[in-house]
Amino acid sequence: WLSVRNGDNRTMTLLGFGRYSFHRCCECLRCCGRRDPRPRTVWLGHPEKRDQRYPRNVINNQKYNFFTFLPGVLFNQFKYFFNLYFLLLACSQFVVEMRLGALYTYWVPLGFVLAVTVIREAAEEIRCYMRDKEVNSQIYSKLTARGRLRGSSTAGARRSVNQRVPADMIFLRTSEKNGSCFLRTDQLDGETDWKLRLPVTCTQRLPTASDLLQIRSYVYAEEPNIDIHNFVGTFTREDSDPSVNESLSIENTLWASTVIASGTVVGVVLYTGRELRSVMNTSNPRSKIGLFDLEVNCLTKILFGALVVVSLVMVALQHFAGRWYLQIIRFLLLFSNIIPISLRVNLDMGKIVYSWVIRRDSKIPGTVVRSSTIPEQLGRISYLLTDKTGTLTQNEMVFKRLHLGTVAYGLDSMDEVQSHIFSIYTQQSQDPPAVKGLTLATKVRKTMSSRVHEAVKAIALCHNVTPVYESNGVTDQAEAERHYEDSCRVYQASSPDEVALVQWTESVGLTLVGRDQSSMQLRTPGGHILNFTILQIFPFTYESKRMGIIVRDESTGEITFYMKGADVVMAGIVQYNDWLEEECGNMAREGLRVLVVAKKSLTEEQYQDFEARYVQAKLSVHDRSLKVATVIESLEMEMELLCLTGVEDQLQADVRPTLETLRNAGIKVWMLTGDKLETATCTAKNAHLVTRTQDIHIFRLVTNRGEAHLELNAFRRKHDCALVISGDSLEVCLKYYEYEFMELACQCPAVVCCRCAPTQKAQIVRLLQERTGKLTCAVGDGGNDVSMIQEADCGVGVEGKEGKQASLAADFSITQFKHLGRLLMVHGRNSYKRSAALSQFVIHRSLCISTMQAVFSSVFYFASVPLYQGFLIIGYSTIYTMFPVFSLVLDKDVKSEVAMLYPELYKDLLKPFQDLAVGFRASTGSIIMYGALLLFESEFVHIVAISFTSLILTELLMVALTIQTWHWLMIVAELLSLSCYIASLVFLHEVFYDVYFIATLSFLWKVTVITLVSCLPLYVLKYLRRRFSPPSYSKLTS
């Protein structure tokens, strides 16, 4: 037994089985004997049979353990050519024949890069370890035949608020008076509303919880699977006469990662560890590498190819004389600066700056950067995949319309409905004698009042809502429940639609004041309590798209079957009418969620016959769902249509303008939701995900290859049409026509996938990446969005009502969906453009010095002698030029307000990274070297001082020419670097420079000429670009 105390002094007790136990969080998730999942029998009261072993119930989200951390991190670094190249380069310096300088000039930069990477990975692993430890260290009380014992196999404090169910269980017993409990499933299915769960009937009737240890019974359960919405099993008690058999369904389950919200709960554990529903629906986290980093890695390979070619040319010009193969290696090392190791350092430091800027942005408060390695990804997104509930919508419903066929009531006419209800119950209380000679107007009014009353009564009874009474500081809970205090009552249900409907019936006079498993109480406007016995409930399923309830009115004994559901299924159930289809279409076009409400009166004989067949069908192990559905359908014929209801799901703030901004930026938006098709379609229209001018193609349900082929052909004939498809149809299409379907879907302006399982969301993201090669961004706020967020190139979590699981698993965390526009249009765009400029200048820096080395070697008869040695090589890429070049991470071409106002600027970034000025940048080094040889021919002994001074000044000047928006730190960086170089001329004069020579006027004017001439090609190119091919932002900045 395991017991957990809730925040309101309520406890959750778990009945363990076999060798089920909790282990320390540092242990890896492993199981005893990996075998295929299969059905199982869990025994209660049979100690001799409890010998099966199951996966250990621990959570482990770490990518490495203590032994694999360092090898794993190093492998992930050196599997890319960029880092592997510098490792081989540094190792080559241990060979005397290949050594060109001091070892520290190669090993210090490489060590610094690796140290930064290891520290960053270690910090992320520690954070992940602490999150796992918090979950795995929960303390439970173990109840045995000797009583309850406090115990836990992990160290940790006792958690007393919002404790989660630690394993998948069957609900056996509760202390609640209504014989049920509520469950919060926000981190499992993405819904914030409480779910009603029912215990096994025969165990609920036991006098005490300890009696569960005395009975002899067992649970037969299906094999572990990923379906969180369905379950098939049976509960059998052997020691009763006769033996008791009860069917088990999803209503009898308590899945792991859900939260017990009320009462004391006792359950038997079925699945643990890797067999948990929540674990099976979550993909493993992966290390994300940005597209920009991959392009830089590819550019490194191109530069390496150029390095090999130059080295071969140098040796060929020597006619391969002597030990030419050794000369090739020396030239490879000599020109190794062509691939700058400082590029990796600068880009990594730039990412840290971008992350800091995002966190400091006051216009998107609360934004957190959890992955600082991919901020450039935000600037090149082509597909945005978003969740619906809690992300686009607030999951708060507002009742907007009641339609009776001949008359409709909106928000401005609800007082008429209220007067009809009041008149009905006023007449019933007065019970006046029949008045002869009623006028026609009176008869019509009475008929309309009766119709309104029947509709409101059906809405007030046909639901799964339970009123819960809480203490408000003045009235305690027991007294509030006894007197049905309105101020203390809170409605809880599995769907927000249900709560909105019941709240509306309360506003018009018919109030739900009490409910348990077998009865329901309504209060009339006059304060009279109406009692109803609940005979049967048929809960809503995504297959049936409807829910029903059979109740008996205690005052009259009448048995009535009420049903509500989607118009597509209810149209064939209700009696013929000529207005249902048209009015449903009108309400749906307004973005309302439409429900059709109907009823059917039953005699006692009809109900008894139905009940016998229904109980028999529920006890079936094979094809239970089909048999139960067949029995229920026998009642669903010729029902009386009562009304239509229209409910609107409130959108998050500024969802419509944000989606419009993303569309104008060239980003295609796909909505992936676990909600039903009708609801998803309404939200897509309401949020303007689908514009008013676009048609919507609802992909009909297909079950085989032939149907999928026909439906795809029908869809192919439509143009500029949004697609709405269910998860089941999507699975069939991807199985048989994956390429054809993805090709058609990618051409759609918008796609809505409904009834998607968490793993299916991740599959869609993966297919988009594979088929299009474009970058994807996934946005969600619930635990069911984690797989999609982790699979996407860039995952964004929204911190909302559904908890923080999505935001903790995401690369970026925001507090509202509207912040996504600024995150992409401003920060994503700036991060990418700044990294592109930064990498171009670092590569330019390396090309300059490599070109100068090539010219120097050519002049000296192709000798493999270095031009600059020791400190000059390291200083060139650090203190002399690092600050001005790195200050480019502060540059921006347009203001943030302009970037938000013109999202079309974002489209320019969807092209691959390229630098058309590489040839001109390489020519800079040649100009400097040949200029030095030409102007200082008589002072050739000072070639190092001459060329190096010109090189530094050229680099500083080029940075200044490139900057578009000056920041005070840029000016400081330029002056600081220039000061450092001037100071080094004094301190290093004995090693590299002749201080008397560099103080001459001739040196100064000639170096100035060389510097200006070397910058000329880049300036000319920049002018020609602005004159004949100006960038898209140039008009906006003028």
UniProtKB/TrEMBL annotation:
This is Phospholipid-transporting ATPase. It is found in: Golgi apparatus, trans-Golgi network membrane; Membrane. It comes from Anser brachyrhynchus. The chain crosses the membrane at residues 103-123, 294-318, 324-343, 842-862, 868-890, 916-936, 942-961, 968-989, 995-1021. It is a multi-pass membrane protein. The lineage of its organism: Eukaryota, Metazoa, Chordata, Craniata, Vertebrata. Belongs to the cation transport ATPase (P-type) (TC 3.A.3) family. Type IV subfamily. Residues 808-1030 form the P-type ATPase C-terminal domain. Keywords: ATP-binding, Golgi apparatus, Lipid transport, Magnesium, Membrane, Metal-binding, Nucleotide-binding, Translocase, Transmembrane, Transmembrane helix, Transport. The keyword Lipid metabolism does not apply. The active site is at 387 (4-aspartylphosphate intermediate). One of its GO terms (biological process) is endocytosis. It catalyses: ATP + H2O + phospholipidSide 1 = ADP + phosphate + phospholipidSide 2. One of its GO terms (molecular function) is ATP hydrolysis activity. It holds the Pfam family Hydrolase. CDD domains: P-type_ATPase_APLT_Neo1-like (cd07541). Its cofactor is Mg(2+). ATP binds at residues 387-389, 498, 540, 564, 593, 673-675, 755, 761, 784-785.
